[in-house]
Structures are given as structure tokens and as C-alpha cells.
């Protein structure tokens, strides 16, 4: 009798289990059917979902899911606003503060008041350096914390930061015309170089914090001459120097081991700290604006003469070759690039071009109050007045 009872209990448990599995199975079938019906009604296209959230490189596109209600984001000032896209964050400098925002939801990741009279920011990797140009304060931060802040002994002329957190800066000097220093991310001085050949107007440091360059201005034969010098940390003297008479230095920027020099009327590159390459020789171009890709390749907009309406946008390789020319019918205010697109800001609109071929992809309407623009996925982040906002096509 006991054996029959146990057998009956076993059969009962098995039957109950089968009934439970059947109920679960029917529940799944009903749920799937409901989803299919809803998708049929709203005509959901799986390919459109894929295109929306997966970029052309197969990576998940997190910036697409922007919380539109989080923008516009109000700033503490409309003066001196500089917007940078850095490490999937928006880095915003004003004349009184610096704020790092999550680009998806405008959440403040990091914010501080700098108190600088003439703040200038430079960025690389997850680091950024802010210095008080013409005064004596300089600081290094990452996207979440302060690394250091220092008060130096002479007015700061210019500075730059590397992806490793090394900071190069130039000051006026009593011993010479200028002094160039390099600090590592812990504020230890790893290079000091006195410059007697002129007053330093720009500096650059590569991603490793080892290769450096500076542009100095002096007079020669009653004319101003800009000279670009390259030097490595640990060297006693410069590796090379190139003179550019009649040219004003606009920017120095490393791309790997190679250096871009952008002047007001030319573009040159210096390979491996020594070998100069000509992209646009002196006097052949009038620089309108410039920017860099995420790989630090130069995007250069120029006209043939200062009052020309026709402008040309090109990508310049470190070998000095200009390619992918795009003809622009009006003068742009800025050019930026985050992924595989080029974002060109005009007074009345923002145009998007492919980085690979220069093909026009779309236009976003705006007004002349927009001062900075970055294209992230299908939206453009802009600074206008005292706000950071998002506009759609």
C-alpha cells in the first residue's frame, strides 16, 4: 500500500509539472504573438533599429539615446564659452567655470569654478589643461577629478597637454626671452628649456609626453619671422628648426610622431621631429578655420584670398598631402569631427559631410548665435549664448 501511495504521489507531481510547463509555454506563445501583432501595427523595421543603435563600424551608438528633455543645459555665463567633445563627454569652459557633462542626459560629472581672468583650455585623451593666459595659474584635470593646480613665477604665454597627462607651457623669462617647461601628471618638472631665439607663441606635446615643439617669433631684417622648433624631453637642444618669414603661427598639433604647423597663410608638417613636408606653401592659402579628427588628422578650410566667397575644405595627412576636397559656397565659422563625419558650422546652418569621401549627408538649421557645434549620431550639440542645446535634422 505504501508503495502504491508513493507511485500515485510521483504521478501527481509529474502531471502538475507538465501542466505548469504547458501554462508557461502558452504564456510565451501568447506574448510572442502579441509582440508580433504590435510590431505589425506600428510597422517596426528591424533594420531601422539596427541602423539607429549600431554605427557603421559595428559599435553600439550610445549617444542616440539622448534625453531630449535634459537639454538645453543652462550655463553660468555666456562669455567665452568653449565646447569640446572629450571621452564621450561634453567639456564646457566659460569665463568663470568648467563643466563636464554626460552627453546623454546632461548630468554633471565634474564641475568647478576656475577664477581665471583669461582662461584657455586644451584637451587630449581624458585630460584637459586650463591656464590663465597672461597670468600665472595653470591646472590639470581629468574628466572626473583635479590632478594639480600650480602658480608659476612668470606670466603664462601658451600651453598644451598630452594624452598621458604631461603638460607643456611657456612663460615670459628674465633669463631669456621665454622658458618652456614640461610637467608630468604629478606636477614633477621633467624638462626646462630656455628660449633665446624669440618669444614663444605656441607649444605642442605628443600623446606620449616625449616629443615637444614650440613656435617663437622674432625679427629678422626688420621683418617678423616665426620659427618652429622641435625638441624631445631629455634633449639638451632642439632637434630641428624651420623659419617662416611673414607667417603668423595659428596652431601646432601632433598626430602620432608627426607635427602639424598651421599658419595664417600656409600648412606644413614635420615628420619624426626633423623632416619638413609642404602641404600649402606660404602665401598659397588664406586660412579660414581648422580642426582635427579623433585621430588628430588636420581638417583645413582655406580660400585663395582673404575676401573670396569660395572656400575649400580638405583633409591634410601628416605626409603633407591634401585630399577629399569639399567646395564650400560660404565662409564657415568652425569645423569639427567626432566619428566618421565632418561638422561644418556656418552662420545660418550646420552641414555634415562624410570623412571618407567628403559627400554631403545633411543640413541642420541654426542662427548666427551658435558658436560651437559637434555632430554626435543623428543630433548636433551646440553652444548658443548661455546654453548647451541639441538640434535635430
Question: Could you outline the blueprint of secondary structure elements for this entry?
Answer:
Layout: H1 2-42, H2 46-53, E1 73-74, E2 82-86, E3 89-93, E4 97-102, E5 108-113, E6 119-124, E7 127-132, E8 137-142, E9 146-151, E10 156-161, E11 167-172, E12 178-183, E13 189-195, E14 199-205, E15 211-220, E16 223-232, E17 240-245, E18 249-255, E19 258-263, E20 266-271, E21 275-280, E22 286-292, E23 298-303, E24 311-316, E25 322-328, E26 334-336, E27 341-345, E28 349-354, E29 360-365, E30 370-376, E31 379-384, E32 387-392
Short description:
The chain is built from 2 helices and 32 strands. The chain is mainly beta and 393 residues long.
The end-to-end span amounts to: 80 Å
Helix content: 10-25%
Average of pLDDT: 87
Low-confidence stretches: 28-54, 56-63
Apparent shape:
globular
Based on CA atoms alone, the radius of gyration comes out at 28 Å
Features:
393 residues, mainly beta, four-stranded antiparallel sheet, 50% strand
What do you see in this structure?
With 393 residues, this protein is mainly beta. The chain is built from two helices and 32 strands. It has a four-stranded antiparallel beta sheet, with no helix packed on it. About 9% of the residues have low confidence.
